[in-house]
Design brief:
The protein has 202 residues and is mainly alpha-helical. The protein has eleven helices and three strands.
Amino acid sequence: MLDRVEDTDRDDKMDVIRIVDRFVLQHRFPDGMTVVDRFVAARKDLPAAEREMLLGWRDPVEGIFEVQRKDGDAIILLNLIDDLVYRTYSNVGREAFYPDYGALRDLFADPALAADQRYGELLRAYLRAETITPLPLRRLAAAHPETVDAVYRKILRKPGFAWAEHGDALLRKRKSWYYERERCPGVSVIGARLNELAAGGR
């Protein structure tokens, strides 16, 4: 872990998370076991389903994924690196992709909810969080162009706020960590589907 930290930005929390994940899930000790193996072996009280889930983490799949469709509780993903299709499930429940995102979506659909302190705290938490990129906030603004200004005016207490004029500056100020360096994939392998997308195909 120390060797990897030397080659990365210690102030970038995502880099640190990736290092810890790789160590816990993929590093093998001389006996061939991973940290997860040792944890499961030491916890004889774990239910079978939890043991199976944890041991499944030993073989992570890395790549750039295109979301193809939702299928029940699963999301069907195409890995643009290996051109394989993966049927994936959340390991922390249906509301895993962003915390309380449904409530935030309700707020943008109905700005009157800003009178409820819980909604204001939720939006401010999204603006503060260093684990949440600008993407969900940009998507909400794009999905609710008629109400986005009213939401931010009420929550931020800035009567003159206009998303089209001030939104980018707000995100760059609150999420400066995200904009400090260019974000790009760590590999450049191009599969058939990625090549199609790059060429403008659908």
